Amino acid sequence: MNNTKLMIIGLLVPALLLIPFSIISFYTDFANKNPDPLQVTVSFNGKNYDAVEGKKAFEQYQCMDCHTIVGNGAYFAPDLTRVYKRTGGNGASLAGIIQSGFPSKGMPPMRDRGMGNEDAYRLVAFLKYTDMLDTNGWPNNGSWDRDGGLDGTAAENIRPMGIWQVVAGIVFFNLIIFALVLAYERAKVGNKT
What we know:
By secondary structure, this protein is mainly alpha-helical. It has two domains: about 5-30 and about 160-190, no CATH class; about 40-155, Cytochrome c-like domain (Cytochrome Bc1 Complex, Chain D, domain 2), CATH 1.10.760.10. Helix content is about 50%, strand content about 5%. The chain has helices spanning about 5-30, 50-60, 85, 90-100, 115-130, 160-190; strands spanning about 40-45, 45-50, 70, 70-75. A two-stranded antiparallel sheet has the order 1-2. Strands 3-4 form a two-stranded antiparallel sheet. Helix 1 (about 5-30) runs antiparallel to helix 6 (about 160-190) and helix 2 packs across helix 5. It is elongated.
């Protein structure tokens, strides 16, 4: 076998592996579409508020200076990705908590920072949207509690199946490389004789 054939085999084998694994990856990770933020609304006093307006309020009141959304932001206060579900899906209650704060946990009343009812309702629409995002199971049952205790993300909750999938992938990849090197060496020895 000459070098050209080995080069073609070396290019085709990874390409043939890349295509099906790319398709599998797409359908397992990206096929689950997230909701349209303009379609996620909450109603208060007969008026609808959408998640896009809520995102603007989230940025205006600098919520990420303390909180995180899907792990992005500061880690001073709890992750808000699933806070809508954790409050029972009660938007009015969540708006009240946002405005009055949680002094015992260190959250100041946002009413003191100029947040009115309208902005609180918009923010609830955004938090409802983040609760509907497909985050592939993250955060597990919440996030780090503000006082440093684990809130459902303990190591025993991590599925070991994912580790075995990674190990199997590494072993499979190394076997393919080994087979290519072995074929190359055999071809090199065959060309010398």
